[in-house]
Design goal:
The chain has eight helices and 14 strands. It is of the alpha+beta class. The chain folds into two domains: 274 residues, Jelly Rolls (Sandwich); 41 residues. The longest helix has 39 residues. It is globular. It comes from Meganyctiphanes norvegica.
């Protein structure tokens, strides 16, 4: 098990978080199949899935990423809470997002990383891998264990691979508790990351933002400083914790809540993930497994869409009434 002892760099949370060793397996071809098929998280060690990328340190990436711009997020603190720009424009135009986006070449990003000092904004590169990278990275990418990945995709009735996201983060960076609507193999390449995982059955105890909010699919709770008066269900929350090191792969099932933290005071981290959409059959199975989460999510989505349609309908109507009133007054 590629892990670090409890307390080496983690906070001691007041809610229940256990290190469940049944979630850590070193046989990628047999033992993990049942867990993955049943949408249970599992840490796979010694898979060799991305062994060709274990040399992707910043020097190697700087040399081979090319000159194209990369997506870099900026945060005034260590939390990188994703925001949907479309929802800001549509529903909350006055909302001030907690992170900002900047497009930088990899060399520019590394320069800022090396010049960073306490008090500066923190940086987190999150770039989809594409054909603009150098030939060496393409060769490494081709040498991933696609045979195993394609096998998992087939037997679990997953849809197409939608993206491979390269993540290069500063020590201590945190992606706060959220869930995704795709299946994810999260492969750790450089450094260590601590992962918290919570089952979808704890949906009501994680206090998600409303579906129309720019931070939809994310928890309102600050897990470093939880407010038990505002969020009383936290004391009944149970979760899992694991530490990922180079070569480890974490399967994060769709709808499982998770928080990812780079080990503080230990240098940068590099990871890559594999996101898969669902087929129709997989969607049906997930509706059967997580009916409450999907039901409430759909209700919120339907309500927000209905409200927006109503506003779209009323806007020209109200404008017409105002014009008629103005004409009458004239």
């Amino acid at each position: 098990m590629a892990t670090l002892p409890m307390g080496t760099f983690i906070n001691l949370y007041p809610y229940i978080v256990s290190q469940d060793k049944t979630l850590v397996l070193d046989d990628k071809y047999i033992n993990n199949l049942e867990l993955i098929f049943s949408n249970q998280p599992v840490v796979l060690t010694g898979t060799g899935l991305c062994s060709s990328a274990l040399k992707w340190d910043v020097d190697y990436l700087t040399k081979n990423m090319g000159t194209e711009k990369n997506v870099v997020f900026l945060s005034s603190n260590k939390k990188f809470k994703y925001c949907d720009d479309h929802k800001i424009q549509q529903y909350m135009p006055d909302y001030n997002p907690p992170i900002k986006r900047l497009d930088l070449s990899f060399k520019e990003f590394i320069k800022r990383l090396k010049e960073w000092k306490t008090g500066d904004v923190r940086l987190y590169l999150q770039q989809a891998l594409n054909t603009n990278v150098g030939e060496a990275l393409v060769a490494d990418f081709v040498n991933f264990d696609w045979r195993w990945l394609n096998h998992q995709q087939k037997i679990n009735n997953w849809g197409p691979l939608t993206s491979n996201l390269l993540l290069v983060g500063m020590e201590g960076n945190i992606t706060p508790v959220h869930y995704d609507e795709q299946q994810n193999f999260f492969s750790q390449l450089i450094g260590y990351k601590r992962c918290l995982l919570f089952s979808p059955k704890h949906y009501d105890k994680l206090y998600p933002h409303p579906v129309y909010h720019p931070c939809d699919r994310q928890s309102k709770v600050d897990f470093d400083d939880p407010d038990f008066n505002r969020f009383p269900g936290l004391d009944k929350l149970e979760g899992y914790e694991t530490i990922l090191g180079p070569g480890d792969v974490l399967y994060i099932p769709m709808y499982w809540w998770h928080q990812i933290e780079s080990k503080p005071d230990a240098g940068y981290t590099v990871s890559v993930n594999f996101w898969y959409k669902l087929t129709y059959l997989s969607r049906v199975l997930n509706h059967a497994i997580y009916p409450d989460l999907i039901f409430f999510g759909n209700i919120q989505k339907h309500f927000s869409e209905t409200l927006q349609s109503l506003l779209n309908y009323l806007q020209p109507l109200s404008s017409g009434l105002l014009m008629r009133s103005y004409s009458s007054a004239s």
